[in-house]
Structure formats: structure tokens, C-alpha cells
Design brief:
alpha/beta, Nucleotidyltransferase, domain 5, 14 helices, globular
Amino acid sequence: MDKVMKMSIQQSFSDIEYANKKRKTRKEIFLERMDKLVPWTELIALIEPIYPKAGTKGGRPTRGIEKMLRMLFIACWFNLSDEGAEDAITENQTIRRFVGVNLTTEHAPDSTTLLQFRHLLEKNEIFEQIFETVNALLISNGLSVSKGTIVDATIIEAPASTKNAARKRDPEMHQTKKGGQWHFGMKSHIGVDEESGIVHTVTSTAANHHDITEAHNLIREEDETVRGDAGYTGLGKRPEITETEKASLKMEINLRPGKVRAMSEDDEQRLKERAKSVIRAKVERAFLFVKHLFGYRKTRYRGLAKNHARLLVLFTSANILVAAEKSKFCYTS
């Protein structure tokens, strides 16, 4: 029997078995949801002008933009390397269906093809455009935003080992002390809209970069209020604020925990601090998605730029999920 025919029959049996499952896995439910929520058409349109056309001389044959984009998102959502993403498509039927690969007629895009695709998007700043485009679509589809920003930062650990080809740690990563422990890596700084809870600004620095020195880059021009934890104490006195048009901003910064604990339970100031914390807690939602749902607690690449690009995809995805939870959101084409 012809080899292709055998594969086709096997694929058919596999499809029947897959369709008759008694229950869907969490991975399957998540991918079905993201398949509907991610605006694939708009994102493909961003990449199309810079993507190599079929038949271009030299190099590897091009794969479809949508396949590559979906493969990239799979790598980000499940915290996979390029090689891991290739293996996942080959081994996992749920992921293979999501990406749109049929192994009876084609091979899964290999890791080198994904690597080149990532570099193409990085070079042309497409990751930033993806983040901005999705946020604009969220707002245009009815998500309400305010004139207040919540600022915060989190540490993303990086490998501290020197057992690599260069015999040294990543020179763009640094160490910092937090909670009595030393951490080596980078920081992700975000500005979150205080009403909708979506991330509107993302920056990345080495871990030893203090949160307060990056805060002015997270504030929008139209903002009237800025909220932050005790690490941002004194933000309103910094020259980046006082010597710019941001000088009129209202600062709602939490007191240090020690001062709050020293207050009585019915102290009016303590009640105000609790009220501040309730609003400010929205910023933690984005980090919950990135570090726990998507598992991005440790850097995947060397250097800040590549890790920042992955964070943009993850915060874009987190924004989509936050918007969907708030208003049963879906795009209107």
C-alpha cells in the first residue's frame, strides 16, 4: 500500500479517536478559547509586508504566516524553546490542530524556521506593534479605560551558571536583593490601567534597576493618577516627574508595610491604605498570567531584547484574557 495512503488512513483513525474523546483537556479548552480571542487576521496583516514571499531565491522555503505566528504563540504560552515548540507540534495532536499542521502532507515547521521568524519580527519591531494593535482593538470593541495607571515590576530570574560556551553569565542581566535573598536576572516593569486592568506599557531592564527610576516611562500622557506600592515612595519628588508635564499627577503610593502594621485596626489611615491596595491589586493579575499561567518565571534567552519580545506576547495574551473575563469580550470584524 502506498505510504501516503497508509498515513492518511492512520490520520483518519486518529481523527476519529480524537473527536470521540469523553472530555476535553485543559490545554484543549485553552487553545480553543485563544483561537477565538486572538485577532489573527489583524496580526497577520502586520507581518505580511515584511514576510518573505513564496518563491524568493535563497534560504529556506517560507511557511504560511499564520502557521508561524501560531507556533510562536504556542512557544510563548507553554514556555517552550524553539526546539520544544517543534517537538510539541509533532507529538501533540491538540497543538498540531491549533497550529494547522497536517503531518500526512507536510512536516511541522522546524526550530530554525521559528528562530528566523522570531528574529524577523524582532528586527522590524513587530512584537511592539502586536501589543499596541491588540490593545487598540480591545478599546475599540468597548473596553473602557481610565486616566489612572498602576505601576509595578517583577523579577524574572536568569541562569546564574557559567557552564556555557562563553564561560560567563549573561552580561545584560544583573543581581539584586529582595526579601533578604539575592536574585540574578531582569525586571519587567508594567503600567496597568486602573479601571480595565489591562497592561498598556511594558519595559524591561536588568534586575538591579530600581523600580522607581523606570516609573516615569510607564505613565501615559493622559494620566491624572498614578498608583504604586511602597517601593515607589518619593516618586512625586523625582525630576522625571517634577520637571515635566507629569508634575500635576496625583500620587497614590502605599505606605511601607511596617508603618501600616503599627496602626490600630480602626485607624482611618489604615482603612485608606486598604482601599489603595484593593485598586492596586489589579496589577498583580497581569503578573499572575505571565508567571503562573504561562510559566515565565525564568528567562528563555540571553539578552534583554529577546526576553522583552516574549514578554510583549505574554502581556498581550494576558490583556486578551483579562478583557474576556470582564465583558465576555470578542472581536467584531
